[in-house]
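Task: fold both queries, return tokens.
Query 1:
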Amino acid sequence: MSFLPNIEEYELLLKLQNGDQQAFRLLMERYKRMLAKRILYLLKSPEDTEEVLQELFVRVWVNRQKINPKLPIKPYLFHIGQNLVFDKIRKTNRERRLVSAYQHALPAEAYHHIEESLYRKENRALLDLLIAQVPEQSRKVFTMCKLEGRSYDEVSKLLSISVATVNSHMTKANRLLREYLKDNSHLMISLLIGCSLAVGSTAMM
């Protein structure tokens, strides 16, 4: 039995094949919510879901001429989405394994160099990104103490707060930075690799 394509969808896909951007937008509007619901169910993360959706429709546009307008597009979209979800899960699991491997493989003294690695000149962009996650007052105290090298007593006088409050802000800032690194394993991998290289270089001297 021959398949009779949906005429409206058939014409939409023909236009898409010819590079019609309006047809592409209509296709996204028609299927994005349905795809997002399925992908979110699998990934449990709105951010990851949005990333996968963007990549999915980029692939549809790039490969539009390979689409067969005589076949329903929905299974094709779900197939791409499923592959991207599996790739995302594999990547996340691989990053977690890498972090775990470095944490177990590096010598204990390497962890004393994590902070040193973070404050190196080449990591300033990463440091700025991390500091931006810290609340304003804690960020100000952290910057004055860690980056400007001021003492707790000096910062206390400059900001008209107690030394205990300075210490509290520093504790909060350090905790937030550690949590952010923990939640962004790719950044932790970068720092751990830097630490391992630093330790290795020291050992060879």
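Query 1 returned. Query 2:
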Amino acid sequence: MVTALISVASCAGRAAPRSTAPHPALLNVSELWVDPGNIQNRDLFHGPGGAKLAPREAASYDLVAVDTSGFSPGYDVRDRDGTVWSVKTGVEAQSEVVASRVLWAIGYHQPATYIVTNWTLGKAPTNAGVARFRREQPTQTVVDEWSWYDNPFVATQPFKGLIAANVILNNWDWKTSNNKVYEVDDAGRASRLYMVRDLGASFGKTSFPAILRWTPFRLMAQGSRNDIDDFEQQHFIKARRGDDLEFDYRGVHTRLVDMVTVADVVWTCRLLDRVSDSQWDDVFRAAGYDMAARQRFITKLKAKIQQGLAAASDPSFQSD
């Protein structure tokens, strides 16, 4: 039976990405991305929610529900003000906050996420551990999911730049269930925002065997998470051939990654290159990394950004 399933899946493959926009002229790209303006004015320590929406440290939270759907242990909890938070513990908590901050820094919509290091669950007398706390804005409601392969933005620069950014972050968990469509009610005017959430499978390396990409085993983990040794080991770009790039990517989403050209990488790397040194430190400090880990992650990220810019200026580029 397993052999038959592998055979069927191998023949089926994955469809090429396609745009669902009814008419390109009517497409509102700002639902996915907005020009961040002066990136150095962004508060990357507190992120899109700012200090005002941050959860309390050294506080007790009431359990609303246990989330058993993902890789990491999770809960829905309520604080004393009645705000409900989605909480993720485990290895993905820190990497998710960093990845979210980075995407928001360059213009992609993100929910308010924070790291809390000292909190208790219910009446538990001990600290519940380092956790990612995420809250929804009162004016925003999740109304749908969206697919990397079927969405209105497939042909746009921000969409292809988003793929490049995820390759830089080594985020490999590109499930449809991680992508949410929000309806925003702002002064009676409803609009939509497309967000990539649950970014914890970042900052490791992709390591999925190519022979299994089109089998049922493609639903398995495709790499590591929040592992500085792994993150440092993997390159970004291996070689350039004309306008095409060969990425050091070992996940299952090769059809998406193959869409990304030199121009797309330059677009993303130029945005990331505008993040200041102090902001990079804020990003990782906000996620609770110590100084040594912060420096290693930042050094590797900046090297990838410079590699992307170097590949753009050298038609015969090959990584060392």
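Both queries returned. Flag for query 2: The chain has a mean pLDDT of 88.
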